[in-house]
## 1
Amino acid sequence: MHVSKMTTVNSMDEMSKIQDKSLVRSQAYIDGNWVDAGSGKTFDVTDPATLHKIGSVADMDASDVQKAVDAASRAFESWKTTTAKQRAALLRKWYDLIIANSKDLGRLMTLESGKPIGEATGEVAYGASFIEWFGEEAKRAYGDVVPSPIGGSRVVVMKQPVGVVGIITPYNFPNAMITRKVGAALAAGCTVVVRPAHETPFSALALCELAERAGIPPGVINIVTCSGENTPAVGKELTTNPTIRKVSFTGSTAVGKLLMGQAAGTMKKVSMELGGNAPFIVFEDADLQRAAEQLIGCKFRNSGQTCVCANRVYVHESVYDEFVKRFTDLIQQKMHVGHGLAEGVNFGPMITERGMHKIEDQLKRAVDSGARIVLGGNRPKGLESIGGHFFEPTVLVDVSDDVPMTCEETFGPLCPIYKFASEEEVVKRANSVDVGLAGYFFSRDIGRVFRVAEVLEVGMVGVNTGAISTEVAPFGGVKESGVGREGSHYGIDEYLNIKYLNISL
Ligand code: NAD
């Protein structure tokens, strides 16, 4: 592992290098206006790599949310009557503007999330792909004509937008978790009130500035920023306000359960994209080098802070030692840790202190019960002067099956590698957790590919690849990883109600 030589960074100076200053918004956006919180309060946003303040934004509360919901409700009356073609044209303009501004959006994202600039601009393109995709999908939200069992009658099925949608997103994908929801909602004819993560509100506000420039009408998109302190009250309003007809949330399973419970009172439609604990299985017939290379991205992308990150790596005992060596060699060659804006860096800080404590605790508990660290395990030397939440890519062996590192999502750069002896055994261990978002395995046996893919209890399977996210495929999980799907043609259905007409001629 290499450590960046750029050991002092002034985050404010880096913010000032954003070329289009009007992308850096500190007010929230309600009914087509940039507004302060009703209370006048603001909260600070910091660069997780340096812990420097990079700005502050409006700290809204439940009364501001009510204003946003009212605006979204008024806008829904006209937005739902626009044609799919008109909505598609606006979404296309928004997409073009996001792509045209990807450099600034990437820099902004790196500064508020710590994500290396290459990954950040990659996320901007990925995020934009949902706006493009759903703009096109808007035109294909067809209904059905069903053959009626009764003579002289017709059965017609139509799809209609659900109404105002409340959206809550996490910090790890400050752009794409918003576009994946907002793109589908707007395409369907819904209007939205979005509460972005308090760690990363600037990316959401910049997206909104571009939506305004694209000509998305007032009230169709509303962004309500708030601090961690105001989050429970804002979340409560978004999940209990009767005007909101759907809640779409991405975040942890614990918060998802709370929000789903709150939404039950008014029987809202819900989409819950929650936590994972992905198994990554390397069978004895796998291409080991390819598996090791894919695991680098699958485990360490965004410093391990993605819901589909490999969490538990299982390697067949006959290739175990060779795989561990190949993988640790690759980490040493390829990983460059440092500030996300520094040249060559592909591994940044943890976004939150909370996340840092979680991995340190998981590591300690694994080691206390017999695990061995074969690489990493510390805060990296040489970056002390930068000041942020950095932690080395870490590989462990001899980790037991009952420690938190195995049973829970890590959401950080810890990589336990376990040994297994048979297909049956590894599938059982892979399925032994409460969540089921993504799973990965490497094998060149076509029979095994189908057998294992069919029995893994997850919503998404990567076979001989560690990269599965794309706008054209349904993203989502089973078990406690949530309900609903995002992206793909299935994604728009989450924002549509089905109405059926029985017409007697
Ligand atoms: P989190 O659940 O703590 O927070 C997610 C969001 O919810 C944040 O914006 C947070 O401020 C907000 N929130 C927290 N409490 C709330 C409340 N009472 N009411 C309303 N909002 C509330 O999760 P996190 O640690 O920020 O994010 C990481 C989690 O998100 C991981 O579990 C990860 O797997 C999951 N995630 C899932 C997907 C997916 O598509 N399935 C994608 C990204 C992240």
## 2
Amino acid sequence: MTAQVRGVAAPTRAQVPAGTLRTDRWWLLPAATTVGLLTFVVYGGFRAFQQQYFFADERYLTPFYSPCVSLGCASEPGSAHFGMFLPDHPLIPYAALSLPFLLVFRLTCYYYRKAYYRSVWIAPAACAVPEPHAKYTGETRFPLILQNAHRYLFYLTVIISLINTYDAIVAFRHPDDGFVVGIGNVVLLANVVLLWCYTLSCHSCRHVMGGRLTHFSKHPVRYRIWTWISALNTRHATFAWITLGTLVVTDLYVLLVASGTITDLRLVG
Ligand code: FES
């Protein structure tokens, strides 16, 4: 018995010998997406395991190390707001309690799925460009069915976003100088606001707010919140990219100040 040919090579499809008939630079977007995602993964991976320069001016904690719960956080007094209990080991990030969840949250995000299915997995890379995979089972089977965990990870991410917010607020207090405002505060605050925009514009959040309701008129508060979330949701892809950028910028700022490469400019205090 011969194997059934599927996809663009199936006998019922028009037989086009060329790989694609598109002559524009269709590969540009998937290539740029791959480079963008890869850059973030490499940078984030390096920083998560560097275990250095994560706390600056005795108050700025980078989001890559939040919450700092390793015994190693003791090297920077004041950086651990929620206790230190994980062993200090080169292979255990100081924020091992949050980073894996944040990574999987982004990995299973509906927007990022679209981005890496098209760019990294090229399934397909663009319209009228055939995919190289012989069969497609989508997210109905293992392992991609696990993408459904996203809706549960949303709740954990809300908790982590609250922790990031706490970090940004306590950063206004210097242990010796009291209330101060520096450029670092502006950077941390902007990052946390944009992180909230990304988290609240999540499709799962929209569903939590307004999903499974038969009559919006009977739930005016949920309906109102749902309309706000829906407005944010239209920008979800934008927030997904912006927050990758702000996370790197915020971390880089803390790294540069902590390493003494630059000085944090004080605006108040
Ligand atoms: Fe992107 Fe939930 S859909 S974070």
